[in-house]
Amino acid sequence: MAQKTEQEAPKIEFPCADYPIKIIGRAGPDFKELVIDIVRQYAPDLDLSKVDEQDSKKGTFTSVRMKVTATGADQLDAMHKALKATGRVQMVI
Predict the structure, then answer these.
(1) What is the mean pLDDT of the chain?
(2) Is 25 helix (H, G, I), strand (E, B) or coil?
(3) Cβ atoms 35, 83 nearer than 8 A
């Protein structure tokens, strides 16, 4: 009888340059700026040339993709909480 083995999630080594983050929220004229302001509190070296914004087909939602230098799980958790606390961010991937 074969034994079932669980795969471990890949471990991230910190610091991790170019860590991809996708933030999805309700569309609005200042959504991208709001997200950038919050992310910069946790990743001050955010490169704006690596920030991309895309609206959903119906224009209800906006996704903002960026790459940051992740320094640790604490930084990523705090950033996630701050983004969700805005009430405008639906999901952080």
Answers:
(1) 91
(2) strand
(3) yes
pTM across the whole model: 0.85
pLDDT at 34 over 90: yes
What is the token pair recorded at 32?
């991208």
Q: Which two tokens stand for residue 11?
A: 């471990």
Crossing angle (nearest 10°) for helices 31-42 and 73-85: 150
Count of helix runs (H) and strand runs (E) in the chain: 2, 4
For tokens 């070296």, name the residue.
Answer: 45
Amino acid at 31: F
Contact 64, 35 (CB under 8 A): yes
Q: Do 81 and 23 contact (CB within 8 A), yes or no? A: no
- Phi–psi pair at 59, nearest 5 degrees: 80, 10
Radius of gyration of the chain (CA): 16
